[in-house]
Amino acid sequence: MSTTPRTATVEVLVVKALQVDEPDWCVGHDEDGAHYKADILHQGPNVTLTYGGRPVSAAGLVQAPFSQMSSTEPGISLSLLGQTLGPDEVRAFADALTDHARQLHALADELAVLLARGGQ
């Protein structure tokens, strides 16, 4: 038997409070939201998109400054898509919504004509 001390490397999870710089637009953080540094998410106030008094989607500024899975730059979280988009992507999506609105207007016009003819 050896008298030389033995060592082992054991990985442990150390939990401690971490102070992070917060952007001016951030409205706060969930108390239980971040368990790892990569989970930290800055969130701005949401803009809620509604129709008929019901929420359809929400959008707002977000940033995950320590993310290991996505960009660490600020973006816009759009709940309708479940994605975070950059400025050009948000503009492209808004343009697509404008195109969809035109299609819906055309369908509404077609329906109005059908209804005016008695639904035929």
UniProtKB/TrEMBL annotation:
InterPro entries: DUF6907 (IPR054202). It comes from the Bacteria. This is DUF6907 domain-containing protein.
